[in-house]
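My current task is to audit a protein record that another person submitted. I need someone to confirm that the token line plausibly describes how this chain folds. Take the sequence as given and treat only the tokens as open to question. This is what I was given:
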Amino acid sequence: MYSAVYPVLAAQTRLPFYLSGIGISDPEYHVCREKGLVSYQVLYTRSGRGVLRVGQREFPQEPGSIFFLSPGVPHEYFPEDGMWETAWAVFRGAQLPEIMGSLGFGSWHEKSGAELSGCERIFSQLMSAVNDPVSGGERCSMLVYEYILEVRSLLVTGGSRSKNGGSPADAAIEYMDREFSRDITLEELAGLSGITLQHFCRVFRAQTGMRPMEYLARRRIAEAKRLLLTTERSVSEIAELTGYASPTYFGVVFRRCEGISPSEYRMSKAL
């Protein structure tokens, strides 16, 4: 069974994120893209076995395997025994390179043994929304962002939702991704990890390259950027929604991360 939908890209291209294709390949076929795709791609295995090749490296693909590819990354993938079922989605957006970078995505990521129930849920919602001719574009845009965050939790932040567990920093990362709008303290994060505050800070920085509160600020600002681009909420409302009681302090943090104010960011992307 091969089921694919490629939406007509008209008004959707004005959205921050939009779906350029989605489908289920059963069986998946041999794909070789020497120049990569023009879209971002996420593909995960539903059944069977396959192989992903990026550069000179090969990665076995089986149930629980998932990979992400940025545009322009040469790659190849193929079934190992002819019985490989995959679920894939490709998406674009004018602001995506900037947003994906702020969320910590590199050019490509791959993981095996992941807990994919969250991906399955959002993928099913995307498959339904993409067939809605009235509001499907806007609904898909929101779901694409939700999908990106789910994939990020598996591939970028240490797989904190994986059944395999992880480092002491993983519980704190998952907590910040989920509860970033709350007033979160460093002591609270260390407590989630079950280790001393000093050791937690060392482990967290070794894993992410950032201090814990820097990670939290970047996560909040990534969400703020999304809200600035996709809603008409005021800067004060967005500040509150992203965990800042003071709009002034929110503006200071935003400028520190982005080099411009929230209002300037919104206006620059609307041009």
The mean pLDDT is 86. The first strand starts at residue 2 and ends at 5.
